[in-house]
Amino acid sequence: MDFKFAHMADLHLGGWRDPELEAMNLEAFDDAIDNCIQQGVAFVVLSGDLFDTSMPSFDILDKTTKNLNRLKRAGIPVYALAGSHDFSPSGKSMLKVLENAELLEIVSKAEDKDGKILLRFTEDKKTGAKLTGIFGRKGSLDETYYRQLDRSIENEPGFKIFLFHSGIQEYRPDYLKDVQAMPLSLLPGGFAYYAGGHIHHRSESEYEGGKVIFPGPLFPCNFQELERFGSGGFYIVDVLDGIPKPSFVDLKRYDINTIKIDADGKSASQVETELLEALGSKAEGLEDSVVLVRVSGILSEGKPSDIAFHRIADEARERGARALRKNTAALSSREYQEIMIKADSIEELEHSVIKENLGQSGLEPDAEKTLVEKFMALLDAEKLEGETVATYESRINGEGYKILKT
Amino acid sequence: MRVVGQIVSGQYGEVLIRQKSDEELELGELLVVDSKQPTVSGSQSAALGPQETQDLGRKTIMQVVNLQYGSQIQSGSLQLMSGMQLEGYGADLGFMEEKLRNYVLAEVKEVVTVSNGRARTPKALPPFFSEIRQIEKNDLDFLTQPQDSLYVGDVRSGSKKLGIPVFLRGKDVFSHHILIPATTGRGKSNLVRVMLWDVLDKDYCGLLVMDPHNEYYEGMDGAGLRDHPRAADKMAYYSLKPPPGGRTLIVNIKDLKPWFFKGVLDLSAAQEDAFTYFHKVYKDEWIEKILTLPPEDYPKGIHESTGGVLVRKLNLLGISALDGIVSCSGLFSTTAGETTLDGIVSELEKGKTVIVDTSSFSGEIEILISSMISSKLLDRYKHYKDAGELRAKPIVSIVLEEAPRVLGKEVLKSGPNIFSTIAREGRKFKVGLLAITQLPSLIPREVLANINTKIILGLEMEPERSAIIESASQDLSKDGRNIASLDKGEALVTSNFTKFAIPVSIPLFDANYVQRFKEIGDSKPDLSGFS
Prior knowledge:
The complex is a heterodimer of chains A (406) and B (531). In chain A, the strands form 5 sheets. In chain A, strands 4-3-2-1-15-16 form a 6-stranded mixed sheet. A 6-stranded mixed sheet of chain A has the order 7-8-9-12-14-13, with no helix packed on it. In chain A, strands 17, 18, 19 and 20 form a 4-stranded parallel sheet that branches. In chain A, helix 1 (19-39) runs parallel beside helix 2 (58-73), helix 6 (268-281) packs parallel to helix 7 and helix 9 (365-379) runs antiparallel to helix 10 (389-405). Chain A is of the alpha/beta class and 406 residues long. Chain A has 10 helices and 20 strands. Chain B is of the alpha/beta class. Among the domains of chain B are: 3-38 and 52-140, no CATH class; 254-332. In chain B, helix 7 crosses helix 8 and helix 7 crosses helix 9. The radius of gyration of chain B is 29 Å and the shape is elongated.
C-alpha cells in the first residue's frame, strides 16, 4: 500500500541552557508534530536522541508527552530508539517510561540466536511496514552489535525500515572527519529505508537499493550548527509502490544574524563598541532572529571577560532578537592567556583537553585516547531513579572492568 | 656432535671440505667448525699422532655454496671404468676402498663467527683440517627476538628446518624498506601473509597493503588475515563491495588533484600542463569545468583537442558529465567518500593494517589510488616531523605488488613519483616500502641500493639473481646456485640489520597456521539495552 511517514532525529530536547533557545527547540518540535498531523503521516520514526540526556527535566518531559499525546490522539504511532545521549545501559530510561505509557514504541528488540544478535521486527498495523534497529551508544560501542548481527533479517519480506544512530564513514562530511563512524557495510542489507541519526548533517544516499537518510538535527544544537545550518528539519517520506521518496521539511522560523569581529590589536572596550555598532547596522533584520557573535583574535588591552556581552545581548533583545549566542573560543588577550585550547563545542573542548594530557599512562597514545573516551562515556552515566548507590557503583565498576579487560 | 666433513683446502670465501661418505650435504646447508687448538705444540705434536685439542670457545658457521665430485682416480681411468661397466665389459668391476677414493667436495663460505655468544663477520680461516659438523639449535643462540620484531620464518639449513624463528628488527627493516623478489609460484604471497599476520599483533607499525588480487583479507583455503584475533581492532579492509565490517573504497573527487596523474595516466606534457592549469584557475571545481566547459570557454592556451583528451582521460576513471552534471562510477563519487583518504591515513598512524582491495580496478586506477593515499600519508608524516611529533608515531610501510610498475627504470625516466620519493627519503619520515617483484632487474640500482632488506625467494632467471646479488647487504656473490635452488617457501634474508644472510623456511599460511592463534572466547552477545 502507499503511505507516508515522518523521520526525525537528534531533537536533543533539554540540550540548550539558554531558555530562549530551548524554547525555540521545543517550538520546532511543535511545528514538526503539526506538520506530521497535517500531512496525515501513517507513523513517525525517531532515530535517537529525542532527549539530550537519559533523564530529562520535568518541563521537557511535560512538553514532550504533550506532543506525543497529540500524535497518539491523531492515530499516529511513534517508533523510536535511543541515541547516544538518551541511552541507558540498564534500559531504565525515560524512553522506556514513555513506551510504558504507550506514547511511543521502542523498536530495538533482539534475542540471542546461536551467539548472534537476531533483531526482531515491530510491524505497523496500518501499513504493514516492519521496523527494527540498533540504538546508539557513546564511544561507538554500538558497533559491536552490528558485528554480531544475525543477517537473516535481510531476507525478511515486506517494506522494512532500519533505524540506527551512528555515523557512516563513507558518508561523513569532511568537517566531521573526527566523529567516530562505522563502515556502511555493517548495516544489514535488504531494507527499503535506513533512518539514520547521530550525525548532525543532513544527507541522502543509498545502500543496496535502499535510501539512507540523515535528517540532521530538528533544531540546531549548538553555536556551530546555528552558524552552519541556521535551522533544522525532518523528512516526510512518501512510499509509493514500496519505493520511498523522501522530502525534507525545513523548520526555519527565524533568521540568523552573524556578527564577526576580529579583535587583534584592539582593546576590550573597542571590541564592545564595534559589536554595538554592528548590532545597530542590522537593526531592521533583528526581529525574531538569532544573533550569533563570533569574536576572535588577541586583545591588546583588557581580557575577554571585560567585554560586556550581557549588554550586547540586552541590546539585541531590545531590538527584537530572540536570542544571542557568542563564541569567544579563539579570543585571548596579551595579559591573560590562561587556556590555549580552541574549541567550538564541548565535545571539541573535551577532545583538546584529552589530547593535551595524553602520554602519562605509559600506553600507546591512541590506545590511551580510546580508553579515556570510553571511561568518560561510562562515567557520564547517571544514577537511575530507584537505583541505590551500591548498585550504581557496582554497575559502573563492572562496566569499567570490561573496558579495561578489552 | 655429528661430524659431516673436514676442511681439506681452499681460501677465504671458498673453503673446500670433504664430505663424510655416509653424509649428504645440501646446497645452502649450514655447518659449524669449532675452533680448537692442540694442547701440545710444535715438534712434539708430529710424534704424538692423534692429540688432545683445546676448545677456543669460538666457532665459525659456514654455508655450502657448491658441491662437486672428488676422486683419487684419474679422470681418464674413471671414464674407462665407466665405459666398461656401461658397455658390459666389466659387470663385476668395482672400486677398491671406494669410500676413500671417491667422495663429494663441498665448497663452503664463512658466514659468521660466534664467540662468547656474540656474532661477527668472520675475518680468519678456521683451523686447517678441522672437522665440520651439522649445525645445532644452540649454535644460533645469538639470534634473539628484538623488541618491535618482525617474524619472517624459521632458520633453514639446506632443506632442513631447524625450528628457530627468525625475527628482524621490525622498526628498522620497515623504515629502511624491504624487497621481496621471487619468480611466480615461489611463495611471495604466503610470505607476505605470514609477515602481515605477525604485524597485526604489534603496535609499532602500520601497513598499507595495496592488494590487486584480493588475496589477503579473506585469503584462501579457510585462512585469511580477517581470522586474526585482533583483526577487528587492528585491521581495516577497503573494497568496492566490502563484506560486513569492511569499508567501501570510495573517494570524493574533491580529493583528486592533477599531480596524482603524473606517472599514472599516459599523458603528454601538454596534457599534464592543461590539467594543472585547470586546477590553478578553477581550484576545487577544476574537474567539473574540464567536463562541462564548452571548448570556446577553455582557459587561454588550452586547445580544444587537448580539452577533449582530458575529458576522455577522466572518463577512463569513471568520471563524466551529462547535461552539466558531473557523475561518477567505480572508485570516485561526488557525494560520498569525503573522509576516506583521511580515514585510511588516520588508521595507518594508529598502527593498523589497512588492506585496499584493488582487484576490481585497472592498473592505472590502482596506481592512482595508491599514489593518493601514499602522498597523503607522506605529507602528514612530514607535518608531524616539522611539529616535533614524529617520534610518537608508528612506522608505516606500503606493500606494493609488481613494484616495477611504479619503481621501474622506464617509469622513472619521465620523472620521480611518490613511491620513488619514499624509496629515496621516506625513512626520514618513518614511511617505508615493502616492494614485491618478479623482475628486480627492472628497478634502478640506486633504488635497489636504498632497500636495505631483501627476502629472496626462488629466482630462476640469472639477470634477476644478479640484480639482487649486486645490491645485497651481505656478500652473496657465491650464492647464485643457492638462490636458484630455493624451493617454494624457502628464502634467503639479507639485511643491513642481520649479521649474515639467513636462510629461512616460511611456514605455510593455511587454516592450521591460523588455528594456532585463534582465541577461544565467550561468544555470547551482550543484549543489555535491547528490549
